[in-house]
Amino acid sequence: MSARHLLLALAATAALAALPAALSAQDTTAVPKRDTTAVPVPGARDTTHADTMRGGRSPKKHPLMAFVQMTSVNIFVNRMDAWVLNVSDPAPVGHYGNVTVASWGTNIRSGWVWDTDAFQVNMFMHPFQGAAYFRSGRVNGLNFWESTPLTFLGSLEWEFFGEKTLPSLNDFYNTGFGGITLGEMTWRLAPLIRDNRARGIGRLVRELVAFPIDPTGAVRRVLNGEAWRSYPNPRGSYPGAFDWLFQGGMQSGVDSGATLHHRTTAEALLEMSYGDPFVTPYSEPFDVFQARLRAGTGSGGNVKEFRVTGRLWAHELTDTTASTRHILTVMQKLEYESSPAFKYGGQSLSIGLVSQFIAGGGWDLQTSVYGEGIMLGAVDAPRSGAAGTDRTYDFGPGLGFAVNASLRVGGFPILTGRWHGAYLHSVSGLSADTYTQFPSIEAAVPLTGSFGIGAYAGWYHRRSSYIGLPGESASSPEYRVFLVLHTHRGALSGEPAR
Amino acid sequence: MNASPLVCLARSVPRALGAASVLGALAVSPAAAQELSRPGFWMDAGIAYGRLRLTCASCSSIVAATGPAYTITVGGAPSQNVLLGVRGDLWQSSGAARQKVQALTAIVQWYPWPAAKLWVRGGVGIVQGSVVLTADTTGAHSTKGTGVALTLSVGYDFRLSPHFALALQAATNVAALGDLAVGGATANDVIAYVSRIGLALVWR
Question: Are A152 and A300 in a shared domain?
Answer without folding.
Answer: no
